[in-house]
Amino acid sequence: MRAFAYLFAGAVFGCGLAIAGMTNPAKVLGFLDLTGQWDPSLALVMGGALTTYLLGGRVVLKREAPVHGGSFPGKPSHEVDVRLVGGSALFGIGWGLAGFCPGPAVTNLARLDPMVFGFVGAMVAGMLLAQQLFGSDA
């Protein structure tokens, strides 16, 4: 039953990304192009996601533990260090160049586009490299 819940949540997330246009690199790059033909529609998507998180997070975190077991993660560090800035910069560069961030990239694997497979392959390689360099908390 737990696997079905995870599959269902992932499918809903993927459908939401597709409906919102987050799986279309041209739309994402249009949102990031502030000096050209800027497309502000993804700001509404991000605002909706933030609102959902702020409201839903309050409800979920009132529980003693997650529904499917385990525990909630601890409070994040507020320390700004080289790893945080470097990782953020790398994420932004990849997003700006390719028009993908991890969730929409994985969702786009269903399109069987070689560019998407290349991006996801590079993303996974980067994750594995970070894990080797910085340990399992990377």
Distance between termini?
30 Å
Q: H/E order of the elements? A: HHHHHH
Portion of residues within helices: 55-70%
- pLDDT < 50 runs, ≥5 residues: none
| Integer count of domains | 1
What's the total helix number?
6
Structural class: mainly alpha
Give the C-alpha Rg.
17 Å
| Proportion of strand residues | under 5%
Q: Tally the beta strands.
A: 0
Keywords:
single chain; mainly alpha; 138 residues; 0% strand; globular
Kindly summarize this structure in a few lines.
The chain has 138 residues and is an all-alpha fold. It has one domain (2-134).
Explain what the structure shows:
By secondary structure, the chain is mainly α. It has one domain (2-134). Helices cover 66% and strands 0% of the residues. It has helices at 2-20, 25-32, 41-60, 82-98, 102-107, 114-134. It is globular and about 45 Å long.
Q: What's the topology here?
A:
Layout: H1 2-20, H2 25-32, H3 41-60, H4 82-98, H5 102-107, H6 114-134
Helix pairs in contact: 2-4
